[in-house]
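Predicting holo structure, guanosine-5'-triphosphate bound.
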Amino acid sequence: MAFINYTTKNLAIKIIYYGPGLSGKTTNIRHVYKMLDSSSRGDLICLETDTERTFFFDLLPIKAGQISDFEIHFQLMTVPGQVFYEASRRSVLKGADGIVFVADSQVPLLDANLESFDGLRKNLLQHNVDLNSIPLVFQYNKRDLDNLIPVETFNNLLNPRKLPYIESSAINGVGVVETLKEISKQTVPVVKENIFGGKREEPKKEEKKEEKQARDEEIEFVTRDRISPIQFVKMKFKSQEDIEKEIEKLTREFTGKSKH
Ligand SMILES: Nc1nc2c(ncn2[C@@H]2O[C@H](COP(=O)(O)OP(=O)(O)OP(=O)(O)O)[C@@H](O)[C@H]2O)c(=O)[nH]1
Ligand SMILES: [Mg+2]
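Done. Tokens:
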């Protein structure tokens, strides 16, 4: 559930990048970090093992425009894909507003994708969330490699509801921003409905309702021409409970800053 601060008029929407180990989740948010102007993003916070695998999560807060008078922030978070971090995945999923499922397109990894997707369904259920009721976008990643799972197979097995999907090569920055835009488009109207109770602004006289809705739901990200080097804030692993508190604190800090 999105976090709202009525005093500073900030709204934080939590988007989770979920998928099997090494599918490219961290690569996605690193690319977003590099693309965005520093005025529209916070620090990239990573909890990693010595081998650079995500240990608990990566977190990137970004600014993404306005809903009514509220400034919207996205908290992009990745889960650790390695099978034995199930408890971490479950904690990170708590309060998710939208999910990007990052699948690895290599043929030998088909089962790993299916298992991870099944894990997502089960972990959401633990938080009383039905996978069919949460905004979800698929990213079929690593399309630059050979021996790929056909998109049709992915869609048949993972995506019978015909939700949006993006073919990507996150390592080359292909499809990353499109994925972020797509999940924003799915998530923002749902959060808006939940928080503001369906009270939508009346369209201006000369503007058609559909045009206004399209304008509202198109999130613009301020990108930069020059790619910025990544500066990580690395955190030491504490107890799971401490980490959950830390995520909450970071959200409050980011949404608590007043507008400028
Ligand atoms: N060829 C290719 N390699 C990729 C692509 N995306 C990511 N990789 C590589 O795949 C490896 C794993 O990427 P990560 O982003 O760390 O994967 P992850 O999903 O965060 O992995 P975990 O944190 O362990 O769950 C790295 O070596 C990336 O450079 C891609 O589109 N194409
Ligand atoms: Mg990772």
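The mean pLDDT is 82.
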